[in-house]
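Human: Here is a favour to ask of a fellow structure person. Comparing notes only helps if you start from a blank page. Give me a protein, with the fold worked out from its sequence. Please set it down just below, with no commentary around it:

Assistant:
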Amino acid sequence: MKVNVEVECSPEEARRFLGLPDVTRANEVYVEALTNAMKGAGSFDQLQELTKQMAPMGQMGLKLFQQFLESGMSMAMSGAAQGMGEKPKSE
C-alpha cells in the first residue's frame, strides 16, 4: 500500500513544525558582511583571496561537496536505470 500526504504551508510554518531554529538574523548578518567585504575587493586577486577565506575548508571543501553531488547523481541514475527494467509487482 502506498499513501501520499500533501501539506501546504509556508517555509516558515514548515521550519516551526520541524523544530528547526530560525537563522534569519544570522543569514542577514552573513550576507551583509559578505557584501561589505566584496565592496572592498578592488581586484580579482583580492576577490579570490576573500572567497578562499569565506568558503568552509576552502577549495578542499568545495571539491568534497562537488564529489558528494556527483556520487549522489550517479547513484540516482543507476537506481533509475535499474527501476526501468523491473516489472511492477501485483499486490
